[in-house]
Automatic annotation (TrEMBL):
Keywords tagged on the record: Membrane, Transmembrane, Transmembrane helix
Protein name (record): Glycosyltransferase RgtA/B/C/D-like domain-containing protein
TM regions (residue ranges): 12-32, 39-57, 77-96, 103-121, 133-157, 206-231, 251-274, 281-298, 304-321, 342-361, 419-437, 449-468, 474-492, 504-523
Keyword Cell membrane: no
Length: 659
């Protein structure tokens, strides 16, 4: 295996300079781990350095005529049947076991690996994109709907609020039923589910699954349509699988709220945006882009802000190619077809103006949504912003519960398991970014994806490093996975064409074997029944737990918040306390304070058996939340009277004698 000399590659190309710069940045970031312990500080420099190194090896390596080994035709023909059998088993398992268990996620990982393996290693003659897309969509349906079927009630926290808002619209017969809520000016989600409930004559839960629930798995096909505008069917299919298996994408298919529908419209907007950049578009194509962007604005505020970031990235890409400061004027027509940059000034101005107008009319905490958001952001800048003021929710360190507290090995490993799939995709994305900055490959569409991914990573990983989390970074991941999946597929395509076949097979095998399983075992994919149930709270409830909420609501008369005195506030764990408050069963409900090695001192409290067996949040004496398993006597003391119990959930209150 030979390598090209530096003299053969001079002057350095832009992608070469970028790869070397990325390697230097990775080395410069490595010492930060000594100043703050945070998962991404420990891992992203390694991922960036590895990606840049692999790209440089492929760049300087002499071309090898050997081809990558492919699967034998009989194996390729048999694998779809094996995948279908695996999907059938995934349907049966939750029905038998009553929930998606560790066995379910292990089998799902194997099925995901078989699907990605077919995409990457099938030879050109046996490669069937339609059959593979069918497997991907079926997997997405099975993985999500088995959780929805096996769960009583809903999965997640915010969904309980949106259920109440939709019921208000149905009762009022118009959107005026939520006129005092911030979703009044962004009601598409609630109107869609309400209309489905009326049209199908079914309860809200069924209507939700028949509308947003079905749309979510199908929306992954928009990634295929978008990527196929840039690369061949094989790599477009791979991008679809990367996105469909992504943990946060799966989560919004389980926790069906406006963010979910906002993601669907966002994917439609990205497809329409790349389409007008890649073809000689018509008024119909640009109208689709405008329609999708307006739909996002009228669906969800966070989705709207993310969309504006992407549109601004597209506008900057336009400026780069019109002004040409980097000399990006020559194209390799075998990679991307040269096309004059699309003028997006009017579209960006329209969407920003419409967003400001809608947010100014949106009520939120006695002010408009726009005024409240700006107020919170300025307050954060004044009070808590600062370099390495880590505010990330994903840390390699467990929170301290005492001077002698030492995280167990499992507590240290679990955060890395949760982030492993994202890090693998991030590495492939870095390679894809290096590929598209080559002057002969650079084009407005791929530069838009590159800049969008870069800007979104700043909001997801960068700003939290400075203590700024006002933009709710956890909501960005699913949207970020769209450009990452496309660029990641381009990156893996680049490595498969540039590296020595032995290295290529090693890289692709590691990716195929680890990526699907890492995404399946990440906490976002199993919020209904966490694989690591002692480290992650379960965002779903048993039938007895939901029955207790309803019964306690009837028992207390579901008083309004104004009728409840501070000493009558109800206390229980988080997230269970959110169900009481968001359903209106007992609006004044909050997280219980349970001192370390002590007992709670609340007049009204609710204990459930999950508090002793799983991960639930309580506040300590200083008001800091932490996961802890407690016994019933630590929340409901023997001196208190039992007001309600169903064997699994108990409500206790201070007895007259104790007071």
């Amino acid at each position: 295996m030979g390598y090209k000399s530096l003299s053969e590659l001079r002057p350095f190309r832009l992608d070469t300079v970028a790869a070397i710069a990325g390697l230097l940045i990775a080395l410069a970031l490595l010492p930060l781990r000594f100043f703050a312990s945070q998962l991404y500080l420990n891992t992203v420099p390694l991922v960036l350095g590895t990606a840049c190194l692999l790209y440089l090896i492929g760049l300087y390596q002499q071309e090898d005529t050997a081809t990558i080994p492919t699967l034998p035709s009989p194996v390729t023909m048999a694998l779809p049947t094996v995948v279908l059998a695996g999907l059938s088993a995934l349907v049966v398992l939750p029905a038998i076991q009553g929930a998606r268990t560790t066995v379910f996620f292990a089998l799902a990982s194997v099925v995901g690996t078989l699907i990605v393996g077919q995409i990457v290693f099938a030879n050109d003659r046996d490669f069937k994109p339609g059959l593979l897309l069918l497997q991907i969509v079926l997997f997405a349906f099975v993985f999500r709907f088995t959780a929805l079927y096996a769960t009583t009630g809903y999965i997640g926290i915010d969904i309980w609020t949106h259920a109440e808002l939709t019921h208000a619209i149905l009762e009022e017969g118009s959107v005026g039923g939520i006129s005092d809520d911030k979703h009044y000016a962004s009601p598409f989600y609630h109107l869609l589910v309400a209309a489905s409930s009326v049209l199908y004559d079914v309860p809200f839960r069924v209507a939700l699954y028949l509308s947003v629930g079905i749309v979510m798995p199908l929306s992954v096909l928009l990634i295929y349509a978008t990527t196929n505008l840039l690369v061949s069917q094989r790599w477009a299919t791979l991008a679809t699988a990367l996105f469909a298996f992504a943990s946060h994408v799966s989560m919004w298919g389980l926790h069906l709220i406006p963010t979910s529908l906002g993601l669907v419209f966002f994917l439609g907007m990205v497809y329409a945006l790349i389409r007008v950049m890649r073809i000689e578009y018509t008024v119909r194509d640009f109208s689709l882009l405008l329609l999708m962007s307006v739909a996002v604005i009228l669906t969800h505020q966070v989705s709207t802000f993310i969309m504006l970031v992407v549109l601004l990235a597209a506008f900057l890409a336009q400026l780069v190619f019109e002004v040409g400061p980097l000399g990006l004027t020559r194209f390799d027509t075998s990679v991307f077809r040269a096309k004059k940059p699309v003028n997006l000034v009017g579209l960006v101005a329209f969407n920003i103006g419409l967003t400001i107008f809608v947010w100014s009319l949106t009520p939120y905490r006695q002010q408009s949504f726009l005024a409240t958001v700006l107020s919170y952001f300025s307050q954060t800048l004044e009070e808590s912003a600062g370099f390495l003021n880590i505010a990330s929710g994903t840390s390699a360190e467990a929170p301290e519960s005492g001077a002698e507290a030492t995280p167990t090995l499992l507590e240290q490993v679990v955060p890395y398991v949760d982030a492993l799939g994202f890090l693998f995709l991030l590495g492939a994305t870095f390679v894809g970014c290096l590929y598209v900055v080559h002057r002969r490959r650079a084009e407005q569409s791929v530069f838009t994806l590159l800049l969008a991914a870069a800007f979104m990573l700043v909001f997801v990983l960068g700003l939290p490093m400075f203590g700024i989390r006002n933009f709710i970074p956890t909501r960005w991941f699913a949207f970020l996975f769209a450009p990452m999946a496309i660029l990641g597929a381009i990156g893996l395509r680049t490595l498969s064409q540039g590296l020595n076949p032995k290295i290529v097979v090693s890289v692709l095998l590691v990716f195929v074997l680890i990526y699907p399983g890492a995404m399946m075992f990440a906490v976002e994919s199993n919020v209904d029944n966490p694989v690591f149930d002692e480290q992650h709270e379960r965002l779903a409830y048993d039938e007895s737990e939901l029955a207790a909420v309803e019964s306690i609501g009837h028992l207390t008369g579901s008083p309004s918040g104004q009728e409840i005195r501070p000493d009558q506030q109800l206390h229980t764990d988080h997230p269970y306390q959110t169900v009481f408050s968001r359903t209106g069963a007992y609006p004044s409900t909050t997280t219980a304070t349970v001192p370390d090695d002590g007992i709670a001192e609340h007049d009204y409290a609710v204990y459930r058996s999950t508090q002793s067996t799983g991960a639930t949040y309580f506040n300590d004496a200083d008001g800091n939340g932490r996961i802890e398993q407690i016994s019933q006597t630590r929340l409901c003391s023997p001196a208190q009277a039992t007001v309600y119990t169903n064997g699994d959930v108990t409500m206790c209150a201070a007895s007259p004698a104790s007071s």
